[in-house]
C-alpha cells in the first residue's frame, strides 16, 4: 500500500466477486485491518439503502473510516428499474470518484458496484474510467457479483467467492448480526 | 444467530476456505458486523504468532471482542514440524473449545484451523468433536485453506475463495495494512 507509511508501494485494484458469501464481508475485514495501520478509508455502499446494518455501528468506531450509503431501502427489480435507483447509484459513483481522486483517502471501497453495473444503474465505462484515473497510491476495492470482464482485466487482485453450501438452501433465513 | 437478541435462531458452522484472498478477511468482516449488533465474539488465531497485525488494533476497539493468538512468529515447515508448533496449535484448539462451550460467546472464530489440521499440528477428529459439541446457539467460523471434507460436510455455510488473479504472481510483495 502506497500510503506515506510505505515507500515504493502501490495502491492496487481488488475485486471480490462470485455467488458466495464473503464479498462485502472481506471488504469490511480489509477496512478493519487497514484502519489498524492508520490508513484513511472511504467506503461507499451502492445498494444498501439507509437501513442500519451492524457494520455501520462498528465502522464508525474505527479511526479514519468514512462511510456513505446510497440506494433505497428495498430490493431492486432489475427488469423494471426505478429512476430513483439510477439516481442513487449515479450519486454513489460520483461520491466514490471524488473520494478516490481527492487525495484524502488511501483505501476506497465501492461496495456492490458490480451489481449496480449489471443492473444498468450506472455505466461500466464510467467505472472503468474511475479505475484508470485513480492516483497510483490509492487502493480500490470493487465488490459484488457479476464483475465485468473489463474490470477483472484491469484489476490486480481478483477473488471469486464460490458458494459451496449455503444455509438459505436449507430454508434458514438471513440472521441479524451475521448476514446483515 | 441464536443470541438472546433473536429468538428461534441457530448458530451455524461457517467455513471459509480456498486458495484465494479473503478467508481471514471475511471472518474479520463478520466480526465487525456482529460486534455492531452487540454479539459477544471470541477469535483464536491458530497460526499468526505474536506479530502485531493491523487487525489486532482494530479488533480491540470493537466492543465485546476477545482475541487470542497462538503460533510462533515464523513460517511453519510442514515437512519438518517443530514440537513447539504442535504445542501452540493444541493450546489454540483448547482455548477455542473452552470459548465455544462456556456459554460466554455468541460467535467463535477459529482462524487458520484448517491449515493447522492439514499440517498435522492438531487432529481432525478433535475439531470434528468440537463442532459436534458446540451449543446450538453458538456460531462457529473455521477459516483456512485445505478445509477437510468432513468439516465441509458438517458445516452449514461453506464459501471457497478462488484466486482468479493475485498480485504476488506479478512480483508484488505483501503490503502492510492490506495483507497483514
Write a brief caption for the model.
Chain A has 180 residues and is an alpha/beta fold. In chain A, 34% of the residues lie in helices and 19% in strands. Chain A has one domain (21-170): Rossmann fold.
Provide a descriptive summary of the structure in words:
The structure is a homodimer of 180-residue chains. Chain A is of the alpha/beta class. Chain A has a single domain, classed as 3-Layer(aba) Sandwich (Rossmann fold), CATH 3.40.50.300. Chain A has six helices and six strands; from the N terminus they run E-H-E-H-E-H-E-H-H-E-H-E. Chain A has a six-stranded parallel sheet, with helices on both faces. In chain A, strand 2, helix 2 and strand 3 form a beta-alpha-beta unit. The N terminus of chain A is likely disordered. At the A-B interface, strand 1, helix 1, helix 2 and strand 6 of A face strand 1, helix 1, helix 2 and strand 6 of B.
